[in-house]
Amino acid sequence: MLAGAQLPGGPPVATDINDYLLAPLRVHLLSAKESPDISTTLTGKDIARILGKVNRVWAQAGLHFYLESLAQEEAVNPELFLAHKGPAERFALLSLRPEETKGSNLFHVYCLKHMTVNGIYLNEAIFVKDTASLREVEGGMDEPLPRVTSHELGHAFGLAHRQDETNLMASGTTGIWLNEGEVRQVREQAKQFPWVEPASAVRQKADEWARTGNPREAEALYQRLAALATAVNGPPTESKRESPATKAASGTQRTGR
Ligand SMILES: [Zn+2]
Questions:
Q1: Is residue 67 part of a domain?
Q2: Rounded Cα gap, residues 221 and 27, in angstroms
Q3: What pLDDT shows up at residue 242?
Q4: 169 Cα to the center of ligand 1, angstroms
Q5: Is the pLDDT of residue 250 over 70?
Q6: Are 101 and 203 found together in one domain?
Q7: Closest Cα to residue 226, out of 20, 4, 77?
Q8: In this predicted structure, which of 37-41, 172-176, 181-185, 239-243 has the lowest mean pLDDT?
Q9: 3-class secondary structure, 62
């Protein structure tokens, strides 16, 4: 299983970068003309910050989400959603999604301004609202959206609610912790998603592409691995570049970035 280390004041993190699982995430910023209840005011910068925090939570399970793409898009059927306030809104949420960006081979997070719940996982997609609010608990996340997003991703990986309030799967708190059983369950469930790949497999594929004359495809994967290494080890510095974990992560990367 994962080797773990406890950061002071933070969650335990996986220490072997090759054990990390890389998962593609498409984030959709929804808008709708004259519907302030739908139009998110989140920006790409917000999403980068949120994703950084999501990845610090999921480092506990050696799981890393990379932004496959950021779609700024007009919601479809806004009137249907606006007509279904309250518990019935979940049935209308999925109909907000534009057809072109649905894709079934990755995880989706849709951001909108208001709905009844903070976030919801609906198999095909996760929805979160800008205006999410949570009950603060000790050691919890410092802003709601990364916690809400991380919690819903927990459902996507098969986790049920667990009302230990500092736990990631508690309802409505800022808790972020996972226990060993949950970590095991998530990593087992990840095998059900062919698009979730171990870092070692991504590196093999990158090396293969580099060898077979696909430098651009190879480079994209090396960059993905470099971003993982930065998330896990911090930004590369002279001393850190020498650390075995960073070396392992950069592998045969030759770009020197
Ligand atoms: Zn939940």
A1: yes
A2: 19
A3: 47
A4: 6
A5: no
A6: no
A7: 20
A8: 239-243
A9: coil
pLDDT digits (tens, 9 = 90+) for 200-245: 999 999 999 999 999 999 999 999 999 999 998 888 776 544 444 4
Rounded Cα gap, residues 79 and 183, in angstroms:
40
Same domain for 38 and 122, yes or no, is yes
Between the CA of 141 and the centroid of ligand 1 the distance, in Å, is 16
- In this prediction, residue 15 carries a pLDDT of 63
What is the distance in A from the centroid of ligand 1 to the CA of 120?
7
Question: For the chain, what percent of residues have pLDDT higher than 70?
Answer: 86
Output the CA–CA distances (angstroms, integers) from residue 236 to 65, 218, 230, 240, 246, in the order listed: 20, 20, 7, 6, 8
Q: How far is the CA of 43 from the centre of ligand 1 (A)?
A: 25
Q: How far is the centre of ligand 1, averaged over its atoms, from the C-alpha of 226 (Å)?
A: 32
Domain extent at residue 213: 199-250
- 122 C-alpha to ligand 1 centroid (Å): 11
12, pLDDT greater than 90: no
Q: Are 79 and 103 found together in one domain?
A: yes
Question: Which of 53, 1, 49, 91 lies closest to 176, judged by CA?
Answer: 53
Quote the number of domains for the chain.
2
- Residue 7 covered by a domain: no
- Is there a single domain that holds both residue 232 and residue 160? no
| CA of 62 relative to ligand 1 center, distance in Å | 21
CA–CA gap between residue 101 and residue 94 (Å, rounded): 13
The alpha carbon of 173 and the centre of ligand 1 are apart by a number of angstroms equal to 10
Residues 117, 227, single domain; the answer is no
pLDDT at site 243: 46
In a domain, 13, yes or no: no
95 lies in the same domain as 206: no
Q: Using the mean position of ligand 1's atoms as its centre, give its distance from the Cα of residue 161 in Å.
A: 6
What is the average per-residue pLDDT within 183-193? 95
